[in-house]
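Re-run requested by the PI after the first attempt was lost when the workstation crashed. Everything re-entered from the original request form. Ligand of interest: adenosine monophosphate.
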Amino acid sequence: MNVLVVGNGGREHAILLALRKSKRVEKLYCMKGNAGTAEIAENVDVDYMNVEAVKDYVSAHPEIDYYVVAPDDPLAIGLVDELEAMGKRCFGPRKNAAIIEASKAFAKELMKKYKIPTAESETFEDYSKALEYIRKKGAPLVLKADGLALGKGVLICETIEQAEEGLKEIMLDKAFGAAGNKIVIEELMRGLRYTPGEEVSVLAFTDGKTIIPMITSCDHKRSGDGDKGLNTGGMGTFSPCPFWNEKLEKQVLKTIMIPTMKAMNAEGRTFKGCLYFGLMRTDKGMKVVEYNSRFGDPETQVVLPMLKTDLMDIFEAVTEGKLSDIKIEWEEGACVCVVLASGGYPVSYVKGKEITIGETGNAQIVHAGTAVKDGRLVTAGGRVLGVVAKGKDIEEARLKAYSAVENINWENMHYRKDIGVKYREG
Ligand code: AMP
Ligand code: GLY
């Protein structure tokens, strides 16, 4: 089979690396890809948000048998629907199901209606009503722009002043554009050990009838060590989550994952693809922080390397509604991904810096924002590389990853030194 993956980042490179191991995959393509994907796939220089341009490319390439739509924005505009309408087979939810990520107001409404545990919240389209609610509730509060905002549309507000300022930014100044036409205002969830609580990302394959969780992972969203600094797309991940166990998985399947799958069916929005559950262990049990309609980035970088089953077999089983026929197996041990970012990310940074990569042992270098310019490997984004290593436990994996990081460099390279240290006590 010839398979095209839509997307440019580390997640897409990680998906391609897993597909390359499939006995059934012949040729890989990536739209548009980066310098890393170019090593194992043919990069296709088409803007995937331009539906007409994608359709032209697809019509001209009947030799491609299967499409994987990985990022949130093409899913939200219905790229899968367009490809299916052309008779193509795809991995990824249709537009009416991708809304579970594209609208936080929708997701909260769904959880309320089907009694899926999550933070209490109200949704507002009117600034003055939202302001009144904030003043009535008092701090702390969490404000969320309704739409997609590159993972930046969430503000944790410790004081009323911060909440009022945040509300103004989202609804009046439109800091996140049209994503802020609606706002979700939530209670701040408290954890068993910390506030906010301990988080875990659980990605799951689902064909709408069966839902199978993958191994768990934990992200580090803040830019600096000790979870200080601004929110980013994710500065590193490790797998598995130390507080996860079989009993918890059973309970989460019963109270959150299966009810979500069934709720989407009941709404006429069957979700097929990878459904991402951002969960928090709170003082009142496991609750949903967010849903994503896709693989996480950089969660995928630590989850897929541990997959023993052929990923292409799983993708096709999802497409064909036969996921219950497949047994999905994982390696024992742990995996860590340290993200190397451009200095200044997530605010402003310079691209085009030459990257040097020395001896990295058996760490896997996953490319996110890279390009080749005049024959040299250069930075081309905020998050540039993910350094991924496996070990018998998280400690061994993190030591391997960090020893590889020592031999990678460019001007102003920035990374966190504490990936995998979080929740070390379990
Ligand atoms: P999201 O983009 O929805 O994942 O939110 C970004 C981050 O904000 C999450 O990973 C949590 O760390 C935090 N967060 C979001 N909602 C809440 C909440 N209701 N209580 C505590 N922390 C939250
Ligand atoms: N790492 C979080 C996300 O993919 O949204």
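Saved to the shared folder this time. The mean pLDDT is 95.
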